[in-house]
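Chapter summary example: a protein plus iron/sulfur cluster.
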Amino acid sequence: MYRYDEFDQQLVDERVTQFRRQVERRMAGELTEDQFKPLRLMNGLYLQLHAYMLRVNVPYGMLSSRQLRQLALIARRYDRDYGHFTTRQNIQYNWVSLEDTPDILAALAEVEMNAMQSSGNCVRNITADQFAGRAKDEIEDPRVWCELIRQYSILNPEFAYLPRKFKIAVTGSPNDRAAVAVHDIGLRMHHGEDGKPGFEVIVGGGQGRTPVIGKTIRGWLEPEHVLGYVEAILRIYNMYGRRDNLYKARIKILVNAVGIDKFRELVDAEWEHLRGGELTIPAEEISRIHAYFAPPEWEELPDGAATLAAQLAENETFAHWHQANVSEHKQPGYAIVTVSLKAPGREPGDLDADRMDALAELADRFSCGELRVSHRQNLVLADVRQDQLLTLWQALSALELATPNIGLLTDMIACPGLDYCALANARSIPVAQDISRHFIDVDKLQTIGNLSINISGCMNACGHHHVGNIGILGVDKRGKEYFQLTLGGASDQQASLGDRLGPALPQDEVPGAIETLVDTYLGLRQDADETFLETYRRVGITPFKTAVYGDDTSPRRVA
Amino acid sequence: MALVKQGKIVEDSFQRVTDEAIPTTGAVLVDLATWQAQREQLKGRAEPVGVVLKSDEHPEVLADDLPGLALVALDFPTFRDGRAYSYARLLRDRYEFTGELRAVGDVLLEQLLYMQRCGFDAFEIESDDPERDFETALADFTVWYQPAGDDRASALQLRHRR
Ligand code: SF4
């Protein structure tokens, strides 16, 4: 993975020094909260319902075991012994104090990490496919381009005060595991006409109050021009994006207002000036960054090791886990393991300090000392030998980290909701916990198959409910917490937004309604290969609506 | 309010003219509407003329006039409005404006470095000790990843020079 050299380290150290001084000025009363707020936000420090929250960047989800140990140390020393992995592949600490923050940032800098631009109206952490560099279907490793864009965007003087936050995601595979279509800019790798890999550039996607699937602004772009083209988009957005209304300030609103064709004209006119200029990435820089992501020295191993087949046949629990949590690796004899952070009853994405240390240990033992954070809030060990899967699984089981539910119904995304977030209408976490306790039967979960449930505590959609196969949105009905269901959302290469099922339900009716939806699907599907989403797309919303509400879909009376 | 150029407090030689009564002598800074209404007259003046642009006034409207202007001031109605950073880059890189580029309005110390990198060379700042604060603000960072409108070498250039 990428390692800081003296330039990266110097920059991050200077940032810590700068922020330490700003915090001192704040504590001494030299800065008002109003003046201090933008400064702390540029360093990932939010004021939440009960305490400060610090969001730490995990660039495109990559973590070394050493970094994870440091995250554990920070959790112990400065927080309540745990951290929360987010849908943007970052980690958040929910209970930090202002005066500790400079020390936390210094502790992060020691292990080549930072919190720069993890909030504020600037370019945020660049996200990527969590299987980057290991997936069989991959054209090129997206992390090379993520790192180049990361460097380009950090402390970029022109774009520190954009109309609104700006999220960029990159995938190097045709199968999109990075949800690029719901980002401000999504880059998706394709082969060009002459077979050369390049990027389809998608712009103006997003979730929030106005969910939009992004539109293709350029079908194919030479990768060495990616920074120039991104700059053209950012500049047009910076100059013409709305600034009068917080809720209309994202780039998607601009793209929709002028139309994608006009927007493309503006960007291309800007791009004509920039093309071939100093942002063109020199070939030697591309290879320099590439070298950081060179795969480890894999051993020559036979694929589908016979022992593994025997172990699977022998051990049903292991087989369940293997089926759900182990993915194909491009190197024969190896496998990609996803560690579920969605154990029944636990808060999705949370991990305590002891388990962080234990996972760092397992990464060292089984997976070259590296981990990845997925946007579905799980962790990934990407280089596990197939003949060590059983041992790894046993170790994970002992840590209660072997929940066999990746891609299944209980692998939910949930935002922090009303337990932490000042904007929330409702508590998302208890709903997720209720559902995970309701669907505890592994056989049933595997029979249901791939199904994503995404939960947001308000219409800001941090829990990605618009693109969940089943979306759950917390709403406030005269001071009571209710939940609005949507069906048919997806964030992959065929991204779509969910349709509203019917009136919102009280919390205690949500698990039952999910059960009804699932049973309806099981009754309607053509065969076991047809997923929930496919069935939904084939039959439409009506049978699901009738199953949950009967024929009566009039709004429920609120007691 | 102090005007800082090249790290030093300087006297503002421009008189800001907001209505149409333009003094007959001295350097003046006019708004866009005044400039457009009285362009020929203003161009004929012996003393320097500057134009101040609001954040929704794109500098493209001045592109042809720039050789005759001594000063362009870009206004930050609030520090959150970052349009002028892009305007500054365009003025320098695209329209090749070489006169004074001044940041006015809600100009925070923390932003001076960014402004300077984008091509501003004059700053109206509020401070008890503008020269000291200016110096401190500019010393915050010595490493930059990306090229901008200044002559600081990017980390990329430095790396490949090694
Ligand atoms: S979706 Fe709403 S409740 Fe959930 S984290 Fe975002 S703003 Fe808070």
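Key point: The interface with chain B takes residues 5, 7-8, 10-11, 14-15, 17-18, 22, 35, 38-39, 121, 151-163, 227, 235, 238-239, 243, 273, 278-279, 282, 284-285, 288 of chain A (CB under 8 Å).
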